[in-house]
Amino acid sequence: MSHGVNPMVPFPLPGTQLVHVGRQPIFDATGDVVAYELLFRGSMDAIEAGRRDTYATSQVIVNAFTEFGIDEVVGDRTCFINMTREFLTGELTLPFGPDHVVLEVLETVDVDDEVIAGVSALVAQGYRIALDDFVWGSGAERLLPLASFVKLDLLQGDLSHLDEIVTACRQYPDIKIVAEGLETGEQLALSNRYGFELRQGYVLSRPQVLTAASLTPSKLRRLELIGALSAADADIEKILTIIAGDPALTMRVLRASNSAAVGATSRVSSVRQAVVMLGLAHIRQWAMLMVVDDVAEATEVQMADALTRARLCENVASAFGAKSDAAFMAGLITAVAQMIGLSPAAIAHQLPLDIEISAALERGTGALGQVLRVVNAYERGDLSEVAAAYAGEDLSGTVMAAMRWSTMAVAATQAAAA
User: What local confidence, expressed as pLDDT, does residue 220 receive?
Assistant: First the structure.
């Protein structure tokens, strides 16, 4: 299991939620896994998707790209994601680029002129299209010139016209056929006989549900962020304040900036750098999807504790020759890790962190490692270690200042909600 994805977490800790995403492998003719279809799952033990609507698609996107991190879910393989009409026509914007992603046009989508225009625009942007549960005569054949994949259901589909459908698909040499719904050896043999390039089904592998604990951003912060992002003259400082003041939003922005689909390649050492890298347009898209996927907020106490730790790391950074903004981020990440029951190292693997921050979180090295050690020692009550590390100085005043700052930050949030 990859870092940060823990299928054994039975219950969310206070102020956190369990998030889930299903994935089912897609194999090539030699038996190698070449892609995963990402599926909506509402719980760890969900066998079937349960729903395939806009909410389901939004939750799959948010969970896969910002909770787990897409690299954690599919690695360097391609992911297939079900798309509803709203995404295909541009009514809802896709917050990721075309690399390593295939957009599946669900069989429930009415393929009219608006859908064809929307899909044509997506293909022009570099997205690849798959036609799910393809049936000749349903109208989906109008999308064949735009498709890269056609999925044929060999379990529940009408196989009486299979020859004609395959012949029609083969008129487009760039189309690969995915045989899905494979549950028997006979269906697998049928795939071999027709030379289908890709295969998917229970006879090869059942879907797996990935589960992780996640700190839940407050509904207020999401709405506040959308409001700030939607302003005609978006105030970058206000946006930074909103994001930096909510640990969960910070984590999601960082994960989004590291998403392979967004195309980020640099390493970041501050929230500001992550925001600039991701861009306001992408952050706006993520925030809107998060509203679709909205759930309860973290407790005030947890929020204050996390911000106190981050602020304390920031305030002591100069004594160790560390950068204050990097120290704030390192402190915040360790606090979030504790909230969701993961190690700082596990979270570090998911984020596009500066090498110095990664080293501190994973191995405790460097100036930032010293900052974290002295803060950890203070929280344990080991004052002798604090005195030795902090040149004999008393940290109590610095701690009180950090607590006052975090209390004010949380109070400001509550006042805005009133």
Answer: 54
Beta bridge partners of 213: 18
Tokens of 116: 């064809």
Q: Are residues 301 and 410 in the same domain?
A: yes
- 362-389 pLDDT, tens digit each: 899 999 999 999 898 888 888 777 777 7
Could you read off the pLDDT of 1-13 as tens digits, one per residue?
Answer: 333 444 444 455 5
> Are 184 and 330 contained in the same domain?
no
Would 38 be classed as within a structural domain?
Answer: yes
Say if residues 4 and 67 touch (Cβ distance below 8 Å): no
Global pTM reads 0.68
Positive or negative, the CA dihedral 181, 186, 192, 195 is: negative
**Shared-domain flag, residues 226 and 364:** yes
66-75 in b/e form (b: 16+ CB < 10 A) is bbbbbbbbbe
Residues of the chain with pLDDT under 50: 1-10, 47, 49, 260-262, 288, 291-297, 416-418
The 3-state DSSP composition of the chain as helix, strand, coil percent (nearest 5) reads 50, 15, 35
Domain boundaries, position 290: 217-418
Mapping DSSP to helix (H, G, I), strand (E, B) and coil, where does residue 16 land?
Answer: strand
Neighbours of 49 (CB within 10 A): 15
Q: Are residues 50 and 67 in the same domain?
A: yes
Q: Which two tokens stand for residue 118?
A: 């929307």
How far is residue 125's CA from residue 122's CA, in Å, rounded to a whole number? 5
| pLDDT given at position 294 | 42
- Whether 396 and 294 have beta carbons less than 8 Å apart is answered as no
For residue 292, what pLDDT is reported? 41
In this structure, what CATH number is given to the domain that contains residue 236? 1.10.3210
User: Rounded to the nearest 10 degrees, what angle do helices 280-292 and 271-278 cross at?
Assistant: 90
288 and 144 in a common domain:
no
Last residue of a domain, one of 211, 240, 262: 211
CA distance 175 to 130: 9
Closest C-alpha to 26, from 58, 74, 91, 70: 74
What total number of domains does the chain contain?
2
Whether the Cβ atoms of residue 98 and residue 136 lie closer than 8 Å to each other: no
- What is the sign, positive or negative, of the torsion defined by CA atoms of 189, 194, 196, 201? negative
Which one of 157, 176, 211 terminates a domain? Answer: 211
* pLDDT confidence of residue 168: 92
